[in-house]
Amino acid sequence: MRKSEAKLLKLVSFSLLVLFGLSLFSNMELDKNFIPQVYASPDMTPSDGDAWTENDNATYPWTETYSSDMSWSTTSKNGTYSLNATKTGHATRLYLFLALPSAVDVSSCDYLSFWSNASHTKAFRLYVYETATANSYYVEITPRTQWDLYIIRLESFSIYGSPSWSCIKKMWFKWGDLTSGSNETFLIDGLHFATYSQSSASNSISEALLPRFGYFMHNQTWEATSGYPDSLYAWKRTDTEAQSNGLETEALGQSIYAYCWAYNFSGLDFYLDMAETWANALYYFQNDTTGTTGYGGFAYGRAAGSSGQRTLVNAWIHIGLAYLYHLTSNATYKTMLDRSKIWLADTMWDSANSYFDHHYDPDADTIEDGGAFHWARDCAAAGALCAYSNYVEENSTLTCIADKCFNQMITSGTYRQFYSQGLTETDMYASWGLYNGYIGTANVTYKEAFLNSSHRMLLINHRNPDHNGSITAWGNRHRWCEEGDSKLAGWGHIYGLLHLALAYDLTTNTLWSNLFSKMLWDYVYEAQTNDGSITFYRHAIGSYAHYNNRQYTPTSASVVASIWWYYKNVAEPSTTSGAYVVDGSEKITSISHTSETLTFTVNAPSGKTSTTEVYCGSKGEPTSVTGATLWSYDSSTKILTITVIHSSTQQIIIDWTELAVPEFPVGAAVEIALAIVIIHSWSRSRRKTKKIQPDERLQVKASSRARTSTRFVVIYLFSTLSFLTYEP
Predict the structure, then answer these.
(1) Rounded distance between C-alpha atoms, residue 622 and residue 656, angstroms
(2) What is the DSSP code (8-state) at residue 59?
(3) Are 157 and 128 in contact (CB under 8 A)?
(4) Would you say 544 and 240 are in contact if contact means Cβ atoms under 8 Å apart?
(5) Same domain, yes or no, for 182 and 252?
(6) CA 470, CA 528: separation in Å to the nearest integer?
(7) Last residue in a domain, options 549, 569, 589
(8) What is d(CA 573, CA 587) in angstroms, rounded to the nearest whole number?
(9) Do 375 and 316 share a structural domain?
């Protein structure tokens, strides 16, 4: 071997070693936001979570004042007994005291919890202290005439004097405004302090979940009719293939907001494209007639009687459009938002009472008064104004209105209370308003109020051991309830997924991300319908039974956004090929992987065109896609887009197997290349220039082709001979 060739081979070998080393590092994935999956029963005081209300007055003495009757009832929620107190002697007062045998240190606990059931709805105050209420923690609660579980974070108690959670000995339930002459009763059970513990998902990540819920969104399109553009159906029934309940602008606003988050987490433009399609539909539902009371407001829908403009609905629309404008800078959306802010801030804001009015009826040209501060309506509307100031342009007038409205919540103490059976739908409206209130003003009180709902979702996950039933039973550990034992709110629960994701982003507290994982991979996976959604209510009875088979569109949009948050912040699907399906306009089934292939089936009727997106990750562009009519690869997003014009169900095989490339010794390759250059130069030197006449063109073309063929034969023979006779 010549010295020059030896040097060249050493250089090539060294380069290959470097490339191999780099490939090892490129295949290593850093552990991103590792979240430990552990689970244990929460620590409780008393240790069984019920001893203080289990008919053991010798150890844990309860006393009453004002000649009330106190007894132990077998009507209970925990264990055998509950404490039953009835007002008899005094006209309006009922006092219940618990004195522990010795002080307990609950400073390491996270919450106080108990069940209650009352014959009235008169508010009471609960004091927790050592010796005197002058140094105590307290909270005011309005009971209901049914069993309710109250879960109150220690941070949510108000404070008198200088109490300490490390030294608690007494509790006082105090009523001072009961009805004279009546014998009101109050039951209490399961009184205890407890700490949080981590949740754990039983199921592993399912690659099929994301495209299935995306498929539902693709197939909820309301086709353009009567001058309206494409939009979304609000509902789809599980017992029929037909959509139901027509179009609701509220569903558009909620879906836009969720898909903006999906784009935020994934960076994939098709989510933003869908959100813009729905936003364009909203344009046709906004009152753009200046000088009218309804100017700027959005009608509820297209059905008869849906022309009214509701504050709560408009708040969701405004929040969704504000985020979409932030992502797109589309001037049309700003025009819509400018009108909407006028309707909310000028028309519907009741400055005298610091709350928003409820509804505008364009047919009667009347505004329905809000009546009082409403947790869902007013927080949502205040949050919408903050979203404008945050996402569109800073506006101190809007945030001032929001502050006045939110202050109603703060002074009433509403945001401090934890009702596990409160309306989850109501809670989500309020919570998302509070989130936007926080990001629009940086007011930490709004952040705390937003996080309170996360705490409620977490706490209900750890509540009574007797509710550890199956996923279909009321009170399972990873959901909280609609009012009463009969209804579970699918929409409220699922929009709570995004809620937990953002709670984690604000705090980096793994309690939220672990509960998120449990709710997503256990509850959503098990509760999903064949269509790729979740019914609005589960197990409802009576007047709500018809919601058992109705799938609400924004629920699926929220699942899509939530899965992308999980993929980007916790873990991606661990597939053999390293790629995974992320979206499909038609139903995807039978997904399977090998180290170099991804195979799936697209179910669609003949004549239908389907589009499927696959995230290829480190695999990059495939070498072949079998079964596709068309396919394209975007190297910037690593998304493979597959289009199929169906004649029937179609199997797709994506293959990353590398094509075999012949390996030549370096010296041989150099000599071959040199020989080709020499022969090519020799053949060009033998050409003779000749002026070609029109009638000679065919003849010249034929002779030229012959010479070219001869030239390549010579080159081929010479190259082959050079390769075969080469000896390194």
Answers:
(1) 5
(2) T
(3) yes
(4) no
(5) no
(6) 15
(7) 569
(8) 19
(9) yes
The CA radius of gyration of the chain, in Å to the nearest whole number, is 34
pTM flag (> 0.85): no
> What is the CB-side half-sphere exposure of residue 381 using CA atoms within 13 A?
34
- The answer, yes or no, to whether residue 673 has pLDDT greater than 50, is yes
509 and 436 inside one domain: yes
Residue 403, C-beta contacts closer than 8 angstroms, at least 6 positions apart:
441, 443
What are 72's strand-pairing partners?
Answer: 83
Give the DSSP H or E segment for 356: strand 355-356
Q: Find out whether 497 and 558 touch, Cβ atoms under 8 Å.
A: yes
| Helices then strands, each counted (H, E), the chain | 16, 32
Chain-centre distance for alpha carbon 695: 75
Give percent of the chain with pLDDT exceeding 90: 48
Residue with the two structure tokens 């977490």? 458
C-alpha torsion sign, points 222, 530, 432, 514: negative
Distance from C-alpha of 117 to C-alpha of 85, rounded to nearest angstrom: 11
Cα distance between residue 374 and residue 305, in whole Å: 24
**Residue 312, domain member (yes or no):** yes
- Asked whether 647 and 602 are in contact (CB, 8 A), the reply is no
Q: Are 283 and 293 in contact (CB under 8 A)?
A: no
Residue that finishes a domain, picked among 536, 569, 602? 569
> What does the DSSP 8-state code read for residue 204?
P
The amino acid occupying position 668 is A
Q: Cα 100 vs. chain centroid, distance in angstroms? A: 44
The 10 Å Cβ neighbour count of residue 37 is 13
> Which is more confident, 48 or 479?
48
At 544, the amino acid letter reads: Y
Q: What token pair was written down for 530?
A: 């064949």
Q: What is the Cα–Cα distance from 202 to 517, expressed in whole angstroms? A: 9
How many domains are there within the chain?
Answer: 4
pLDDT confidence bin for 546, thresholds 50/70/90: low
Number of other residues whose CB lies within 10 A of the CB of residue 231: 27
> Residue 602 carries which side chain, given as an amino acid letter?
V
DSSP string, 50-91: -GGGSS-TTTS-EEEESS-EEEEES--SSSS-EEEEE--SSS
**Mean pLDDT of all residues in 127-143:** 92
pLDDT above 90: residue 412: no
| Number of CB atoms found within 10 A of residue 575's CB | 17
Cβ atoms within 10 Å of 3's Cβ, excluding its own: 7
Residues 484, 492: Cα–Cα separation, whole Å: 15
Tokens of 197: 């513990």
Strand partners, 668: none
Query: 241, 560 in Cβ contact below 8 A?
Result: no
Task: Choose among 668, 649, 663, 661: nearest CA to 603.
Answer: 649
The domain in which residue 705 lies consists of: 666-687+696-725
CB atoms within 10 A of CB 108: 12
pLDDT of amino acid 301: 79
Place 339 in a pLDDT band, splitting at 50, 70 and 90. very high
Amino acid at 65: T
